[in-house]
Amino acid sequence: MNILDGKATSIALQEEIAAEVTKVIAAGGKRPHLTAVLIGMDPASRAYVGHKVKACAKAGFESSTIERGKEISQTELLEIVRTLNNDKSVDGFIVQLPLPDHIDATAVIEAIDPRKDVDGFHPLNVGNMSLGLPTFLPATPSGIMTLLKRHGIVTEGMHAVIIGRSDIVGNPMSVLLSRNSEPGNCTVTQCHSRTVDLKSHTLKADILIAAIGKPHFITSDMVKEGAIVIDVGINRISDSTRKSGSRLTGDVDFDNVAQKCSWITPVPGGVGPMTIASLLENTLQASLQNTDGIS
Ligand code: NAD
């Protein structure tokens, strides 16, 4: 079994991005600027945004966070989006999901200027991705593609089984892995909560991608010998051995599944860090496209 090391790969990628930023600045260009909009006090969202801000600083980006309470109205949030769309100093921004129930997340995403939509969630960018046109790829699937590539894994002809059909992970992952590209050229089966006899599908997977949000859902009897297993899940479970009383774990029963795999991502240290590196890639791209890198 080999580890698909997202932490090391992400550090390497972030160093490359930082070197690119240094070059742009030396040539008189603009420092990329990412803004995160954080609504409410959800601890997980707060932690994700914290990681993103830290990564921006390391890569030489400017970053800012706009925080509002969960009682914000839809109109107020749309006004924040409009302001960011028009702010020339901001190259890209994200509205951290999930949003409170009274906010229409689709309306918020549709209000984002697609040229600043570094999460790649705007329908125009989703459409471009589906057509294989240049665009901002959603950070998590894009990070997984980079992880496979940088570990020299050739996926052509493999059967990829993806569990999950969210717009941010499962759906774009299916599109990217079935593309005529490398990584890509997989035969893709996409499973979800209504799939009958899930195990009959997972057992056929050369690449198994779990994006479910249920701790240790994928057990070793569901995995084919020699499979590549990508664990997207981030779940907090209680752990009395930890000072905090809890720890993060994935959707895969790592200890037992790892023994059967050719490659596997750990949680933490797998897909999570790659997501952040991909977001920085998108922001650098936005900065270069929107301003030609010139201040
Ligand atoms: P989601 O809740 O939108 O989607 C979960 C999917 O799992 C659904 O499409 C559902 O059909 C499927 N599902 C649920 N129960 C199932 C079952 N019994 N059998 C088969 N399929 C089932 O979640 P999401 O936003 O796609 O995120 C999934 C997980 O990935 C979460 O744990 C989330 O925290 C994590 N995540 C991690 C990163 C990262 O950077 N590592 C990024 C995004 C999401």
CATH topology of the largest domain: Rossmann fold
Rg over CA atoms, rounded to whole Å, is 19 Å
Instruction: Please write the string of helix (H) and strand (E) elements.
Output: EHEHEHEHHHEHEHEEEEHEH
The portion of residues forming beta strands comes to 15-25%
Q: Could you give the distance between the termini?
A: 48 Å
Small-molecule binders here are:
nicotinamide-adenine-dinucleotide
**Mean pLDDT figure:** 96
Q: Please tally the helical runs, counting DSSP H or I stretches of 4 or more residues.
A: 10
Would you report the number of β strands?
11
Spell out the blueprint of helices and strands:
Blueprint: E1 2-3, H1 6-26, E2 33-39, H2 43-58, E3 62-68, H3 74-86, E4 92-95, H4 105-111, H5 123-131, H6 139-150, E5 159-163, H7 170-178, E6 187-191, H8 198-202, E7 207-210, E8 228-231, E9 235-238, E10 246-249, H9 254-257, E11 263-264, H10 271-291
Parallel strand pairs: 1-11, 2-3, 2-4, 5-6, 5-7, 7-8, 8-11
Antiparallel strand pairs: 9-10
The site of nicotinamide-adenine-dinucleotide (NAD) has 23 residues, from helix 10.
